[in-house]
Amino acid sequence: MSMKIMVVVASTRPGRLGPAIAEWFVRATAATAAELEIEIDVADLAEIGLPFLDEPEHPSTGVYVHAHTRAWSSRVDAADAFVFVTAEYNFAMPATLKNAFDFLSREWAWKPCLFVGYGNTSAGSRAVQMARGVAATMRMLSIGGDVYLRIADDVFEGEVVANERREGYARGGLTQLARAAAVLRPLRDQDGRIVPARTGDVPELVVLQRACWVDEAIANQTLDLPALTETAAQVEAALADWQVWVIRSGGRLIASVRARRDGEAWLIGRLMVAPDYRHQGLGQQLLAHAESHAPAGTATIALHTGVRSTGPQTLYRQAGYTLTPEGAPPGAVTMRKAVVEYAGTRCMG
After folding, report:
1. CA–CA distance, 336 with 322 (Å, rounded to integer)
2. What would the pLDDT profile of 164-202 be if each residue is shown by its tens digit?
3. Separation of alpha carbons 70 and 228, rounded Å
4. Angle, to 10 degrees, between the axis of helix 125-137 and the axis of helix 95-102?
5. CA–CA separation, 205 vs 219, rounded Å?
6. Up-side HSE of residue 264: CA atoms within 13 Å toward CB?
């Protein structure tokens, strides 16, 4: 299976050795990359030119307002693994590499990484140690087998000195990186993405409902809420009656929503986000996803929420919903928005 591995050149200062060392790594591993069907993408942070982190929203939301962030996100997201070529500045990695990490979140997760460090006395090992800790926090897997170059011994006139043993380390590192990337791919494919729920998700859906509807019970002063009382069998039966979608993070089910046809309306329900993942835009993403699946001919989109559930009502108003007097179960209110079609384009509003 083909894959893409990004080689990140961390240093951006004039006169840097980073591009030459990245070029050496790519050249040394070219035959291995061809054999394993690996596409190498060299990402030079000096050429990319990211400013100091300037996004107003937290990176975990995935909401990016600047074109340079969206371009960086797309490029990192497309990679299956990373090779970080980093110098050592004052016992640490370059600030440009830390900044490149900090711009994003989900895009790094569940991907393996290899480090090529270079420097003087320590051959860049202290920079790698620091960068490895940050990478682990971003849920990357450092596979070991890192390559280190001591400038006085391994670089001459701006070029890496040929050394079969060191090149063997590079080839071995790339091979292990590809193997780890293949193993982690299923986690990457699911992490942070909206996917249809499966029967195996039922136990976690039950737990998520209990966690999310405690606030609703308190706000509406009742425990008589289906989300709090349904059995696993009832939740599983709902998978046949509703289209249900979920989001996972780190293998854990953290958010869900469901929808189905209800007369002429598209009814959305059970929009829920785990308490520790709220305020990251997941609710808005799920709501928009459920809306987008309304079948052709749908006149309105409807949902129900508690009479005193001010938080959800605010979210829905911001999404264009208005309160309507009819159709709500006891203790709840109904909110609706119209679906309007303009020349074959469907608009919610």
Report:
1. 6
2. 999 999 999 999 999 999 999 877 777 778 889 999 999
3. 40
4. 10
5. 22
6. 7
343 pLDDT higher than 60: no
The angle formed by the CA atoms of residues 266, 268 and 270, to the nearest 5 degrees, is 160
Question: Could you report how far apart the first and last alpha carbons of the chain are, in Å?
Answer: 44
Task: Write down the residue that tokens 């670089």 correspond to.
Answer: 155
- Ranges of beta strands (E only) in the chain are 3-9, 38-44, 81-87, 112-119, 141-142, 147-150, 155-156, 159-160, 194-196, 243-249, 252-262, 265-273, 300-306, 322-324, 332-342, 345-348
DSSP track, 23-76: HHHHHHTHHHHHHTTEEEEEEEHHHH-PPS---SS-GGG----SHHHHHHHHHH
Q: Which of 337, 342, 310, 338 is nearest to 323 (CA)?
A: 337
pTM: 0.63
133-169: buried (b, 16+ CB within 10 Å) or exposed (e) per residue?
A: eebeebbbbbbeebbbbbbeebbeeeebeeeeebbeb
Residue 216's pLDDT is 85
**Which helix (H) or strand (E) is 171 found in, with range?**
helix 164-190
Q: What is the pLDDT of residue 223?
A: 86
Closest-CA residue to 328 (of 267, 284, 287): 267
The answer to whether 131 and 82 are in contact (CB under 8 A) is no
Give me the mean pLDDT over the 93-98 stretch. Answer: 98
Residues 6+ apart with CB under 8 A from 206: 230, 231, 232, 235
